[in-house]
Write a structure and sequence with these properties.
Chains A, B: Keywords: DNA-binding, Transcription, Transcription regulation. Chains A, B: GO terms for molecular function: DNA-binding transcription factor activity; transcription cis-regulatory region binding. The structure is a homodimer of 334-residue chains. The first copy, chain A, is of the alpha/beta class and 334 residues long. Chain A is built from twelve helices and twelve strands. At the A-B interface, helix 4, helix 5, strand 2, helix 6 and helix 10 of A face helix 4, helix 5, strand 2, helix 6 and helix 10 of B. Chain B binds a DNA duplex (30 and 30 nucleotides) through helix 2 and helix 4.
DNA sequence: GGTCGATTTGTGCGCGCTCACTTCCGGGAT
DNA sequence: ATCCCGGAAGTGAGCGCGCACAAATCGACC
């Protein structure tokens, strides 16, 4: 910077003004400085700026399992949104789904002096289980919990798809097709998304006065969906299955096929997420679509607002999902 | 830090020594400092350290489309490897697949003073097309190009799966099953992976003295695989298809099914990647497995070596893929 | 021509840390 | 008793920048 100032024949402060688009610099001077910057291939030193301003222009992302379709897509959406908002993004993944791991990831991020944190990992359950919460992060650190459990931590701003509504959409769709009940392959209970989808499914069933079967446990993977699917396929009473995500639905589809139960002829299957492959599965999967890009933008927005305000705020945004009907569901054949 | 020093009754330098595990601190003193640090909830300021040492402890990741299975998995693998090596990771995604976007992403990373860069985006084609290369990044910035084209830029260290070998494995597997030739649904030619897989497929065919059909273009998506699949399904001469990745294979599987061509009865299909869902597709997909975790570790290793050496180095690592035979391939029925 | 106010530019300090160097202290060899 | 040496601790400078304030410059107006 000193060199640039020298070459342009101005003081370092003027260079600083040019770099930061300060208004009171004569355009002629500005041009001279810009030329000098270009000539010297000058690049501002972020560390120095961070030190001086106490602002890192970085937001942290706590992830857990980015091999899942949802989270991996969210990373992308958030990076985009962050860039547009003028922030860098630094990621820290939790090794496992427990308090120490998540705490450690957050610590790493805080150590980096991120200005705010967005968490994609399902922290609620683990944390509240120990009577702690994301609030252990000092209140001046803005945070947004994507898909966290708002009941467990109402103080933490949250952005999520309306999982219960989506599950309701899926379940009612199956009920409308004449199914006497709908079975459910659930995600891991540590994930609020999983619990909310299960609750939505259950509520829809109860509202229709239908029996609520026991949900089968899954871990979001196709493998677990397959295991659940085998159990379901063995029961001739099963005619409709709502899966907590598309990947598990893939497993269920496979299990049904192996058992000789046609989809949608004998059994209807619905997923959740609408991954890009969903239309090309066999059969094309009816599923609940979430708008990940929108969620990413929303969460960055919420974070930026907090950073600007300088304090943690509360606020929740739930985006409405859509049901995408394809060929894995059909009316119950009598 | 000053406060900690004060509380512990030592100088700031001693605190610094404790923080950095410097050996020459009496264990008694060290204990006192540690206690003070804990009491004050002291957290070192990375910006200040970075400014003083000129080392940011951060590596940058240039991504492009993390909704693809491979890249999304790699992000995860690299984050893990980086953490183990004591680095933070900051990500920057290229908006599009062209020189300005990738340059911009790299600029953002450099602006952040990352110590090294790993690129997951397929930069080679675009860059060399303009007679430029990753080397535009000053030579003192360590870089690793995952899956870049080594012919185009032999100077840049590279880590990748041996795509040609994998394609050969897949193709020879189909040839051994008696197929008279193997068709290919290729990824976008901008991706060296796509070109290498195509080259491997072609070479295997030629080595067996079989005709080389025209490859069908795809963009890695199931949608594009489906489009290619429809064309392939319409041609009764097609009995074996090798797809550039699993997602396109999903599309091909769907197209074959719609056209009433049984897989593997009438047509055999092979993918590439071995995504977690592959065993649960219909039919379970024969595919080429790559070890992403290993690739992530390798690339971090290569990067760390360069950082330690202080100069860009050359070096290439190709990991050998495996063929995983499942049920989407079978012997040609006469 | 002088004065005032607005605009533009410069000065010096400090952000929190590490580095190079100095100082201090105690123990063993001479 | 002297000297030296090595481990343990302290001192001060400076990394590159932005902030608060001071200084200079420029116009416009009386």
């Amino acid at each position: 910077m000193r060199d640039v100032a020298h070459l342009a024949g101005v003081s370092h402060q003027t260079v600083s003004r040019v770099v930061n688009d300060h208004p009171s610099v004569r355009s002629e001077t500005r041009a001279r400085v810009l030329a000098a910057m270009r000539a010297l291939d000058y690049q501002p030193n972020v560390a120095a700026r961070t030190l001086a301003t106490n602002r890192s222009q970085t937001v942290g992302l706590v992830t857990f399992d980015t091999t899942l379709f949802g989270p991996s897509f969210m990373v992308h959406a958030i990076e985009r949104a962050a860039r547009e908002a003028g922030y860098f993004v630094s990621i820290a993944s939790a090794r496992e789904l427990n308090v120490p791991s998540v705490t450690e990831a957050i610590r790493r991020l805080r150590e980096q002096a991120v200005e705010g944190i967005i968490t994609l990992a399902p922290v609620a359950a683990a944390w509240t289980a120990l009577g702690r919460s994301l609030l252990d992060v000092p209140a001046h650190v803005p945070i947004v919990g994507m898909g966290i459990d708002v009941h467990a931590m109402p103080e933490v701003p949250m952005v999520a798809v309306d999982n219960a509504a989506g599950a309701g959409l899926a379940t009612r769709h199956l009920i409308a097709l004449g199914h006497r009940t709908v079975h459910h392959v659930a995600g891991p209970p540590e994930w609020p998304e999983a619990r909310e989808r299960m609750a939505g499914w259950q509520a829809a069933l109860e509202a229709a006065g239908l029996p609520v079967p026991r949900a089968l446990p899954g871990d979001w993977s196709a493998r677990s969906g397959y295991a659940a699917g085998r159990a379901l396929a063995a029961d001739p009473a099963v005619t409709a299955v709502f899966c907590g995500n598309d990947q598990m639905a893939i497993g269920v589809l496979r299990a049904m096929h192996e058992a000789g139960r046609a989809v949608p002829g004998a059994v209807s299957v619905v997923g959740f997420d609408d991954m890009p492959e969903a239309p090309y599965l066999q059969p094309p999967l009816t599923t609940v679509r979430q708008d990940f890009a929108e969620l990413g933008r929303r969460s960055m927005h919420l974070l930026v607002t907090q950073i600007a305000a300088g304090v943690r705020q509360t606020g929740q945004h739930r985006s409405a999902p859509d049901l995408v009907v394809r060929e894995s569901t059909s009316a119950l054949a009598f």
